[in-house]
Input
Amino acid sequence: NVEKVYKNGTTEIRRNIAGFVLTTDKYDTDMRQWQADPNIDGTTSSQGYNRYSYVHNNPLAFTDPTGYWSFKENLPQIFQSVVMLAVSTNPLAFAITTAFFAKANGASDREAFKQGVKAGAIAFASNKAFEAIGNYGAGNGVSADTPGAIQVGENVWVSKEIYVTMVMAHGVVGGIAADLQGGKFGHGFISAAVTKSLSPAIGRLPESVQLVTTMVVGGTTSELSGGKFANGAITAAMQYVMNWQGGDERAQKRYVITVAETSADGGNFTRAANALATDLEGAGYTVDIVHIHSIETFNSVITSGRQIHGMTMLGHGFGSGGAVTLNMASSALNSNIAPYNIDSLDFSNFSSKAVIDIRHCNTGMASDWGVFAQSMHNASGLETIGYTKGLSFRGGDMKYLGGAGARPPSSGSIYLVPNPNSSEVRYGF
Output
């Protein structure tokens, strides 16, 4: 028979008529169920192993505002949680640390091993799920200056619709992780969803405090919703590292290959672009191959879509007396790209760390493509790579230098590589 109920925030103490504490700890007013404490509240006391007791059944001497442990007697457990947070984004380290602390807290070797394996498996699955959500955002990203764009990663901006989808997906992953950890799906869902929804604001803070702030938000939201601070903070850490920063940052980067090719080029530049794209995609980049036919279409390419993190320019060059031009379908100089009109291009959609790699073939090898590369660097402010006398096609172990009858074979991968008369030049490095 319950006689009195003492309430302190979300903590309730219920006593029977004899004055003994019956049930305490976290109480979910919606589910009308008690949550068992996931921590051993003092290994030297039998009350520490009672998952439903409150401060060793001595509420007159101790307080527990967290609902997990009494601060005075449990500094070791506080240290344990700090360590667990530090390794939460490394599944193997998380598993080993969980097993170690379980054993230190009195678990058998078998039970400690089981807890470690379970914790590591949950951490691994959660990390991969958050990484997949990040890559989904990257694959549907837009340019940073797109109206209404929302930043969801270091290098990723998305539309409002994709942002909402990502927030909900984070909530589902967080809810499942909480359920597997012995908590409640709803608590994990709210904590992870709120944490992700606030990530654009957190991303504007100094990078040195972003991870800690994310963990505090996740833990506090979990606490306010009736869950465990530690569980929310650990999930939030995974969200930040695997989603905001990106487990493989290159997977969130966009690379553009432009092809300036005339009908007389026989599709060789397209083949070179395909070979290069295969290599870049193997390294984790998202690659766009775009054929351009004028300086206007080129400018449209580099100003549309989501942020560009690297670009290679392939095409047939034209030079006469040092007047180097990226020759396209039209022979009119105003439609081509040359040092004198590069300043009209808009490079605002490029990452500040992007590199422009200029690979142009020049039949006569008499013009200085280094001037073109330097002009591109001056206009964009980006690191630029060029070659003084242009490039030659290469397929397998053979080089095909410019000139009549020097076309590459009709099949197989080909690249544009420096010819014997050309040397690489770099600007801005």
Q: What stands out?
A: Residues 109-139 form the longest helix (31 residues). The first strand starts at residue 2 and ends at 8.
